Amino acid sequence: xxxxxxxxxxxxxxxxxxxxxxxxxxxxxxxxxxxxxxxxxxxxxxxxxxxxxxxxxxxxxxxxxxxxxxxxxxxxxxxxxxxxxxxxxxxxxxxxxxxxxxxxxxxxxxxxxxxxxxxxxxxxxxxxxxxxxx
Length: 134
Description:
This protein has helices at residues 3-8, 12-25, 30-42, 46-57, 78-89, 93-107, 110-123.
């Protein structure tokens, strides 16, 4: 059973189990962390989504396997995008601004631009003569 197809097909009863099994087998592959983080986000477990995406993002790109097809998204914008969306939902706007900017720089996705604009507008004060932003 593919972990991606399990969750994508709505088989949420079994998806979490298989995502965790995949992580046990391949803890140094961002793809499985991305899949579990996405599952948590879709099922409303936002903090778990953020923590899982963050854990996946900490995996060094040097560990990326090139000997079999991988999900490029997990090695570029997808984990920062999830972290941006999760922190925005959690009203942690400074982090949402940071992660959505990172994701947007990787891939220019509209959802990241939207979160970035909203979160950064909330987080970043308007410049003043006394405290100009550079």
